[in-house]
Write a structure and sequence with these properties.
Layout lengths: L1 H14 L7 E8 L2 H13 L4 E4 L13 E2 L9 E2 H14 L3 E3 L3 E5 L5 E5 L3 E9 L3 E3 L15 E2 L2 H4 L7 E5 L3 H10 L5 E5 L9 H9 L3 E4 L2 E8 L3 E8 L5 E5 L2 E4 L3 E3 L29 E3 L11 H28 L1
Helix pairs in contact: 2-3, 2-7, 5-6
Length: 333
Amino acid sequence: MQAHDEKEYAYDREDSTDNQKLRTFDVIIIGSGPAGYTAATYTSRAKLKTLIITGSLPGGQLMTTSEVENYPGFPNGIFGPELMMNMRQQAERFGSIIVDDEVIEVNFKQKPFFVKTYSKEYLSQAILVCTGATPRKLGIMGEEEFGGRGVSYCATCDGPFFKGEEIAVVGGGDTALEEATFLTKFGKSVKLIHRRNSLKASKILQEKSFENPKIQFMWDSTITKISGNKKISKILIKNVNTQEERELNVGGLFIAIGHEPNTKTFKNQLEMDEHGYIVLKENSSTSIEGVFAAGDVHDFRYRQAVTAAGYGCMAALDVEKWLTEKKNNNSKL
């Protein structure tokens, strides 16, 4: 961290010659996690002056994950926070400036682009948005306490940890049924809990789920409490019609009620779909030329660390190409 501090102070000294001059970068990466850190490694190695503004949770969702078994290169697995710190240090090694701050305002209608955090303001020739998405939570007692200790928001990520367990899944859409079906490979049984008496999922997924003998449906029900000792062991189920409550013994609970892309800061700046995900135009480009996006902020399908890193790599190469072409075109004028 000392090397990072010295580099940041160096920029402070550089800018102190003109108090009105904003810090200017070739590319500002908004958000960290696998997409942001990977992108920064590529842009910094390409000798682009790179700033990462990490956001409210430096490192993203993997900072709240325990063991990661499916990231390539780690045959024995690696803890999520350790993986993110490794990625951060790798980006810093090649010269990325990393600031643990949160972006509160942007202006992509001016050139260079304007970015404001709680503490400082910046300008950049290019922007890469890697702010990710946040799983929707139930907001019930025990959810935060048992996060990473039996409560999960990603069956593909954590399913293999629950071999032979009684598993519960909350939700009624495509994701919930896909996760429930996937979890039948590992769990003794899978109970799908839904607050209504019908599903929102596609008909073909419903048919497959109804035919699966390991999936049991609990209709008109919600979870009101999660409990356990060192890990989850029980959930309290409430019938929304009768108000009757009963305990259910489970070794794992997967919450599949959707994700919220972290894009509020970019409202009225970038084109988004009806769910708030950034719409990509060509490759990693957004609706504003010079602004790019990578990771879960646009990817609502895969949502994996390795795919986010891949998107970060692709976006960084797109940024480098765009800046090079822009520089060459300006030199011809």
